[in-house]
Predict the structure.
Amino acid sequence: MIRLKNVSVAIDEKPILKNINFEFEPGKIYAVMGPNGSGKSTLAYTIMGHPSYELQQGSRIIMNGEDITEKEANERAEKGIFLSFQSPLALAGVKVQQLLRLALEGKKDPVAIYKQVREVAKKLKISDDLLNRSLNEGASGGEKKKLEVLQAVVLDKNFLIFDEVDTGVDVDALKTIAQYLDTHREGKTYVIITHYNRILHYLKPDKVLVLAGGELKKVGDGSLAEEIEINGYESVLGGK
Ligand SMILES: Nc1ncnc2c1ncn2[C@@H]1O[C@H](COP(=O)(O)OP(=O)(O)O)[C@@H](O)[C@H]1O
Ligand SMILES: [Mg+2]
């Protein structure tokens, strides 16, 4: 579905990601782990097409057979990619419903959007009060992450990257988010960037990728995440 070919990325000419090769297959769940600063968020932004992340010569991103390396973030979003931010920003004066209506103008009926937002919000245990506030204004960590998931669902994307959707989220909110994602995973590919095993108990990864120093150091199955939790990265990466 999305193939990374020799993906190297620099920010202000500083190399961050180094020659990443990987193929994400449709319908699967991937966990991306790695120490702080290993390049996880950079990988997420690179797949989404953030303009500050300069792809180095020879880097290619292929989606369903099409080379999207030169495509802008909005074009990639059109093709089904969604990125849930590690730290979602607040948007003063704009409610999530308004944002979604704007994003889906001409694609989805506003009444249908309204209904779906209410329905999904209920399942995610998002309060009416939060829904009617400006996006993320005064929202807790867990509330922000729930609103990210709500947007991912209503925008109806199929390649979903969640950057630390579990960070700063209490156990109940995490369970709600993870179980929702698990029961609605049909036809979707999830890339779950995380430091913790907990979310992976609900969302069983088909593969676990470990980044370190901007390189894809290791790929394993779900047991790799358990191993990391018990022994830490150093042991898993061979003492590097
Ligand atoms: N906008 C930026 N400008 C300069 N360096 C950056 C920027 N974003 C990330 N980096 C650097 O790139 C490396 C990887 O960062 P990041 O992808 O955020 O790691 P992770 O998400 O794994 O913690 C870090 O060394 C970080 O300091
Ligand atoms: Mg990060």
